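ok new one. same drill as before - structure tokens go in, u give me an amino acid for every spot. 184 of them this time. try not to just spam alanines like last time pls lmao
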């Protein structure tokens, strides 16, 4: 073989190798650009998802407030915890008086009261869970202040120390507030 021919073939191979390296570099740049583009949209999607989660938590809190309000409306204006405990004990002993109609009717009435009370407690616990899920979204707002008032009024109400009227007023104030989709 001729040394000039070998030099020529080496030159050709080197040129093709450089051309392949050039196109590999272009492909790497396109890939990097696509990655940056994807990263940008992933960040936007994450931001949108975060806002959707905040909205979902607010909606859950609003729904739990509505459920709590409807449970509270079926309750008497004031509670007697001792009477509720007596009715709860009667329910436990209901099977003893199953043949006496008058006593059974009284026990069934008390059973409804106890069931409504238990529903009210469950609705309030749901509100507390939904409030905790908001994770300080409402800190420093009027809503946070009203919620603390509701917690205090509810505690007074179930202990027989207050009526449901201030509790309903605070609940009405909270449910009338636009906090999920604030007007702009």
């Amino acid at each position: 073989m001729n040394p000039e021919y070998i030099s020529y073939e080496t030159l050709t191979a080197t040129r093709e190798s450089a051309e392949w390296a050039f196109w590999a570099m272009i492909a790497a740049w396109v890939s990097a650009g696509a990655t940056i583009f994807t990263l940008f949209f992933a960040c936007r999607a994450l931001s949108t998802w975060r806002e959707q989660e905040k909205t979902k938590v607010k909606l859950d809190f609003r729904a739990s407030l509505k459920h709590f309000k409807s449970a509270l409306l079926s309750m008497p204006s004031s509670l007697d915890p001792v009477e509720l405990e007596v009715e709860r004990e009667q329910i436990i002993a209901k099977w003893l008086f199953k043949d006496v109609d008058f006593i059974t009717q009284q026990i069934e009435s008390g059973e409804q009261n106890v069931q409504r009370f238990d529903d009210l407690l469950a609705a309030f616990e749901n509100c507390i869970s939904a409030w905790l899920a908001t994770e300080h979204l409402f800190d420093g707002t009027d809503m946070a202040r009203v919620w603390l008032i509701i917690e205090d009024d509810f505690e007074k109400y179930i202990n027989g120390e207050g009526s449901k009227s201030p509790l309903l007023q605070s609940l009405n104030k909270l449910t009338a507030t636009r906090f999920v989709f604030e007007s702009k």
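The two ends are 84 Å apart (CA to CA). and btw Residues 3-73 form the longest helix (71 residues).
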